[in-house]
Amino acid sequence: MTASDGPLSGVKVLDLSRILAGPTCTQLLGDLGATVIKIENPGSGGDDTRSWGPPFVQREDGSDSDLSAYFMSANRNKRSVALDISTSEGQAEIRRLAGFADILIENFKPGGLAKYGLDYPSVAKDLPGLVYCSISGYGQTGPNRSKPGYDLMAQGYGGIMSLTGDPDGEPMKVGVGIADVMCGMYATVGILAALRHRDQTGEGQHLELALVDAQIAWLINEGVNYLQSGQVPQRRGNGHPNIMPYDVYETSDSHIILAVGNDAQFRRFADMLGLNALADDPRFATNPDRLAHRDELNAILRPAIAVRSMEDMISGLEAVKVPVGPVHDLAQVFDTDQVAARNMQVTMPSEHGEVRLLGNPLHFSATPVSYRIAPRSCGVDTETVLAADDPFKTV
User: Fold this and answer.
1) Of 15, 180, 213, 381, which one is the catalytic site residue?
2) Is the pLDDT of residue 1 over 50?
3) Helical H segments across 133-248, by residue range
4) Stated pTM of the model
5) Is 180 among the catalytic positions?
6) What 3-state DSSP class applies to 237?
């Protein structure tokens, strides 16, 4: 499959971002058919995440390459060009490449590119149709604009850590860099909206996002719960603030997830457990009642579930159409028929042999995503790209 098959065929992206939020965005654009040139600093060895291992892809001699698993998670479908933008030659080359591009994305500190003449006002003078996207920790404005932004800081500042973890434990981050990833998703949506506007009017624009802003936006129901009530939410472990029972429960041999979303489901759930009277108990008859008496209900449910096997609970509840599921580790996840059916694990040939990557979750009926270029070593495409009359046509 070639880029011409994708819904973003012909779209050209100049990627000056690194680590995770920006690269997540540009990988998604690349999966959708855009041509992406990734700019990396030759003096530092490229994107910071190239050294965030192990594991690393191994070279033929058994040594570690610069393709860490972390780097590969967000950098397929891109060519790597090594340029030092602190030099006048590097700056001139970036401006030349930007002249061919539809989109430029960067995640330097606010104002960090101005000294190189590569900030939006400087670039837009000559390229008014360019969609220019800036990602930073706290945004281009506000009292914290100059502070560094990392995923963990965004999760802490934006509140999600106060909601995550054991009720009696310390605040806990989500297990992956979700603030970065979601910021990259919001960036993708914003870029495509700005591109639509550009295609209709010829006018480019500056889109800017902050990790913290994006993290606050996806507080979703807990955020609005607080804004509506004024009550600061408390950590509930795996429990849900608005639904009960909606939690992880221990079985005799593993754990299950229960997601009992309404009163009819609760009645069927209680019947399956042989606890028929629960559905008529005034403490538990409705979802608000069950929330008000969460601890009392759990004191009944947990021992009743703990004596049953995971398979017994899952098969029994599925038979009566009550939402239930397992808690998989990653070995179990990637061994499932569902993952195979949905192509959520893909294999690509790379410079150092085959690599296994996560699949893209988008499934189009006419313009499918494509996996064309495995993650590349730093700077391997520099000569080819910079020597071309149209550098994006070489990729």
Assistant:
1) 180
2) no
3) 151-157, 160-163, 178-201, 211-217, 220-229
4) 0.93
5) yes
6) coil
